[in-house]
Amino acid sequence: MFTIAYHPIYKHPLPEGHRFPMIKYELLPQQLLHEGTATNKMFFEPEIADLAPIFAVHTKEYVDHLIHLTLDARAARKIGFPLSAELVERELRIAQGTIIGVQNAINDGVAFNIAGGTHHAYSNHGEAFCLLNDQAIGAQFLLNKKLAKKVLIVDLDVHQGNGTAEIFQNNEAVFTFSMHGKSNYPFKKETSDLDIALPDGTSDDDYLRILNATLPNLIETQKPDFIFYLSGVDIVDTDKLGKLGCSLQGCKKRDEIVFELCRKHQIPVQCSMGGGYSPEIKTIIEAHANTYRVAKDIFH
């Protein structure tokens, strides 16, 4: 049985115009419970994270400005959400959900965070709806606690994990792999340990062929003892912010490839949801729910 981090604050209400992306955080748990993919006892509500793991990844100056709501106007605009105490609390709980998740994954094989995947948060600033980089925080926590020696971050969101790349650019204990849309945000990319930039309209066949040719080799050469998986579903062809051409079934097959490799090599994996912005909420929920369904089939 895997665990799922979820807190009611994940669906924190935002001003009109920002609300749609947040609806999925309320509906996805309901769907998983309704269909029996998850049970109530699999969910846990994360506390607010201690600041020590946050400071291990983000600068104290930046975090202090977040907590005290004193970011300057330009820095706040880069984040994209109106800054509030509730929003900062939400990010601290998401970070703690991933920290607990990595520990649970070591025992259970896989663990989930309904939110997270905030890979655009840099060490010293946030951007694109990301304030704190939950998987980077989780990775450094593992290393600092000596629960892992080598970490592989598999970022398959349609947008490059620019913040994650910056945070770990000089850290040989973390290998960052991002496969993303070439012409998508961020338009100025950072340099991951491995970046694969896909052309607009990339189909299921091409996407899965490239992933199958890359990820098994990475695991063999890097020999990670922990994997973080950012499973953004904005690779589907209906996504408003993505430009790839993958189907729902192709997206599900992507999840199968990642989880089957983790299972085969007995490498624990923590999964954060990342993006999903199709016009119909049912498409977003179906794509995200597929990730949990696949994990249930493979790990249990």
From TrEMBL:
The family this protein is said to belong to: Belongs to the histone deacetylase family.
GO terms (BP aspect): epigenetic regulation of gene expression
SUPFAM superfamilies the UniProt entry points to: Arginase/deacetylase
Keywords noted in UniProt: Hydrolase
GO molecular function terms noted in the UniProt entry: histone deacetylase activity; hydrolase activity
Protein name (Swiss-Prot/TrEMBL): Acetoin utilization deacetylase AcuC
PANTHER family attached to this UniProt entry: HISTONE DEACETYLASE 12 (PTHR10625:SF19), HISTONE DEACETYLASE HDAC1-RELATED (PTHR10625)
CDD domains per UniProt: HDAC_classIV
Residue ranges occupied by any Histone deacetylase domain in the UniProt entry: 22-286
Taxonomic superkingdom: Bacteria
This protein's record includes keyword Metal-binding: no
Organism: Flavobacterium terrae
Record's keyword annotation contains Metal-binding: no
